[in-house]
Amino acid sequence: DKLVVLGQGLNDIKEGLWYEVDHVFQNYDVIIFDYRWEKELSFYWKHPMSFFRPLTSTLNNFLYPEKLDVAAVVNYYKQQKNYTEVIGACVCYSNFTFLNAQVESEQTGFPLFDKLILDSSWPSVQALSLQTIVDPAASTNPVSGRTPPLLTKILAWSLVHDSLELFVRNFLPNASIESFVKKLKCQNVLFI
Questions:
Q1: What is the pLDDT of residue 114?
Q2: 87-112: pLDDT as tens digits
Q3: pLDDT: which is higher, 89 or 49
Q4: Which residues of 65-75 are buried (b: 16+ CB within 10 A; e: fewer)?
Q5: CB count in 10 Å sphere of residue 149
Q6: How far apart are the first and last CA of the chain?
Q7: Is-contact 159 78, C-beta < 8 A?
Q8: Alpha-carbon torsion 120, 125, 116, 7, what sign?
Q9: % of the chain at pLDDT higher than 90
Q10: Interior/surface letters 97-122, b for 16+ CB within 10 angstroms, e for the rest
Q11: Where is 40: in which H helix or E strand?
Q12: How many Cβ atoms sit within 10 Å of the Cβ of residue 151?
């Protein structure tokens, strides 16, 4: 009676997590869910200029709604069945949300997870954003990037690059995975 909750990356789709289900977590109940913003994010990837519309409201509530999603999903399933072990296994953006939810739940005395597996963590939101200014495809494909050469050249122009960097440093939250790890009581954490 073990449960694993799989968390997707920033623009990953749930289907990409089925390898783990088929090969790693065969004897577990498995939960894969969408964050509340998933449909909007898919739209923004296809229509990037529309991304700036909700940006300010998103930044004001960074990570807050997502940690509520994680807590709601885990607590719901814990109420349905008495699990002996609950594992959070996540990638990229979900590392922030799962850690945030775990730290808050530990503070109430009712931790969500017994173990955490964190794959491909960003060091911080600003670090990822600064890297994305140079190579926007790096956040979705960190090994090879693959931003079209014309866009790479435009982003290298000092006016464009400096303006974007100014925006990132002054308006994006400087959330760091380190701040969550320092508060974490769970000792069973694997970083990949």
A1: 96
A2: 999 887 788 889 989 999 999 999 99
A3: 89
A4: ebbebbbebbe
A5: 7
A6: 25
A7: no
A8: negative
A9: 22
A10: bbbbbbbbbbeeeebbbebbbbbebb
A11: helix 38-46
A12: 12
